[in-house]
Design brief:
Elements: E1 2-7, H1 13-28, E2 32-37, E3 49-57, E4 60-61, H2 63-70, E5 76-83, H3 90-103, E6 108-116, H4 121-128, H5 140-149, H6 155-170
Parallel strand pairs: 1-2, 1-3, 3-5, 5-6
Antiparallel strand pairs: 3-4
Helix pairs in contact: 1-6
The structure holds flavin mononucleotide (FMN).
Residues 9-15, 55-59, 82-85, 91, 117-120, 123 line the site of flavin mononucleotide.
């Protein structure tokens, strides 16, 4: 089985998760796995299964990943993502479902995984300048969440995502 891990990553969090999944699958399975940033994927038809990684932008897949996902048909597809919010929040859950919605009609969804990733410090600085009535204005709760986001993706999350996708790809 030919497997592609394709990811989009602005600041490196989703790339870190993608590389970790790749290393775990590559080392332990008798599968033909490649990894590429989405903009380097030439021929989707070369692969039987695709694991797609995106960073969450406006509560769903970032634009580049969204365009890529719309092109995928008749594949076994896994989805993984990183975001600034907590993965166990409604926002986290919905951010994965929005990715799934782009793929589920034309593909078999084999699994999905989401975890936090450090939020760009320039964005946090910009939020700090906003009026307190702005939706994105900084609060103590948000500052704490951004500090926690910096700790992710961690090794445990990389392993969990790898185990999930490995099982779903290899057990027939
Ligand atoms: C422009 C922009 C928009 C973002 N929008 C969201 C969002 O809607 N929800 C969220 O939880 N995190 C949001 N984030 C945080 C990123 O999804 C998060 O930091 C992610 O791990 C970045 O991944 P990357 O390092 O692979 O680019 C946003 C970040 C940026 C820079």
């Amino acid at each position: 089985m030919n497997i592609l891990i394709a990811y989009s990553s602005k600041t490196g969090n989703t790339k870190k998760l993608a590389m970790g999944i790749y290393n775990n699958i590559y080392e332990e399975c008798d599968l033909n796995v490649s990894i590429k940033p989405i903009d380097e994927v030439k021929c989707i038809e070369d692969y039987d299964a695709i694991l797609i990684g995106y960073w969450v932008d406006k509560g769903g897949p970032n634009k580049e990943a969204k365009e890529f996902m719309k092109r995928i048909k008749n594949k076994r597809v896994g989805i993984f993502a990183t975001l600034g919010a907590y993965p166990d929040s409604n926002h986290g859950f919905n951010s994965l479902v929005k990715g799934e919605d782009l793929l589920k009609e034309n593909n078999e969804i084999i699994g999905k995984y989401i975890c936090q990733g450090a939020v760009d410090s320039n964005l946090i600085e910009a939020f700090k300048k906003l009026d307190s009535n702005n939706y994105h204005a900084i609060t103590d709760e948000k500052l704490r969440r951004y500090k926690i986001a910096k700790l992710h993706p961690n090794e445990a999350e990389i392993l969990s995502a790898s185990i999930l996708f490995k099982e779903r790809l290899t057990i027939v």
